[in-house]
């Protein structure tokens, strides 16, 4: 989940109605260059400084144009963003990792540069979209990383298709179940990482900015998202704000389904590939991340500290450490 609803986004029309994969440099697709507010040594000062960054698109079998960001060469590494998130927010992560891998970030339907539609707004359909993406770009086997809702999309993908095409799996701070059922024990709630007791009110809170108390959604995510406490994060968020037009009406459609899924059976029974779990001290579901580590064989747990920007946005606030840790895991 992200704080997109607080943003005053610019408008972008991304032209593509072809059933074939299209490819173009990012600056050409977005229509103009972008200068980042923070100058960071070793990172691009402008969007155009990231040579080889492309924004591409394809059409799904149910007629939805999905966009994806792409850079680099080598083994494919596919990122699935969280709810309301997009490839622009992965700019620094892509810049670092594209030196070593062929990196993709798929904008889910209704998010980022992908088409806004009022159908297929279920996590299971998002998993089908991922399968079709793999087929369109010719990926047979890849590393996959899901952040927040993106991890749920990967759990659904594994539930539907297994792990045959997944070489290694990376999960970033997503609870096995966001919704805490009334008949659960406190230990069950903690192990599931659940922090929401009323899904409908949580959805309204995140999409219509209606106030929530801690009994409805005991979450730090909005507070942590609003903290521009990292120059890397400030740059990637500024890029997203400049070019991405997220519509709360469409973002809302998938959220109830996302919140009410319980993935514990998939996590316990169906993950049989090397797995890395990233979380931090500010996570809403730290115990849930520890539970995933305890039940997934051959898994590794990375818990970032306060000094390491250990919150829901750790990959964007601390891309140097995140990409280094990720590479160590992938190359091991």
TrEMBL record:
Pfam families: Abhydrolase_1 (PF00561). InterPro entries: AB_hydrolase_1, AB_hydrolase_fold, AB_hydrolase_sf. Residues 75-207 form the AB hydrolase-1 domain. One of its GO terms (cellular component) is membrane. Residues 1-23 form the signal peptide. One of its GO terms (molecular function) is hydrolase activity. Keywords: Hydrolase, Signal. This is Pimeloyl-ACP methyl ester carboxylesterase. It comes from Pseudomonas duriflava.
């Amino acid at each position: 989940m992200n704080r997109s609803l607080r943003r005053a986004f610019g408008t972008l029309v991304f032209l593509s109605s072809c059933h074939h994969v299209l490819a173009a440099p990012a600056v050409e697709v977005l229509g103009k260059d972008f200068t980042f507010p923070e100058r960071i040594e070793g990172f691009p000062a402008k969007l155009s400084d990231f040579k080889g960054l492309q924004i591409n698109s394809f059409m799904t079998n149910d007629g939805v144009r999905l966009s994806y960001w792409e850079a680099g060469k080598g083994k494919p590494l596919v990122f699935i963003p969280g709810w309301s998130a997009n490839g622009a927010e992965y700019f620094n992560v892509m810049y670092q990792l594209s030196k070593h891998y062929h990196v993709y970030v798929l904008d889910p339907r209704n998010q980022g540069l992908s088409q806004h539609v009022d159908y297929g707004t279920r996590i299971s359909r998002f998993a089908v979209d991922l399968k079709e993406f793999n087929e369109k770009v010719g990926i047979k086997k890849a590393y996959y990383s899901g952040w927040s809702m993106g991890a749920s999309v990967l759990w659904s993908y594994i539930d539907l298709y297994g792990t045959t095409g997944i070489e290694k799996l990376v999960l970033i701070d997503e609870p096995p179940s966001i919704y805490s059922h009334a008949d659960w024990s406190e230990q069950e709630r903690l192990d599931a990482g659940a922090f929401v007791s009323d899904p409908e009110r949580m959805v309204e809170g995140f999409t219509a900015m209606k106030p929530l108390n801690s009994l409805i959604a005991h979450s730090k995510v909005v507070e942590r998202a609003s903290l521009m406490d990292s120059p890397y994060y400030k740059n990637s968020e500024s890029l997203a704000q400049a070019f991405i037009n997220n519509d709360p009406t469409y973002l809302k459609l998938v959220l109830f389904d996302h919140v009410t899924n319980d993935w514990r059976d998939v996590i316990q029974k169906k993950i049989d590939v090397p797995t890395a779990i990233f979380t931090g001290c500010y996570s809403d579901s730290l115990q849930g991340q520890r539970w995933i580590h305890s039940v997934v064989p051959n898994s590794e747990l990375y818990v970032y500290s306060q000094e390491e920007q250990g919150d829901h946005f750790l990959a964007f606030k601390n891309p140097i450490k995140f990409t280094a840790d990720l590479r160590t895991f992938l190359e091991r």
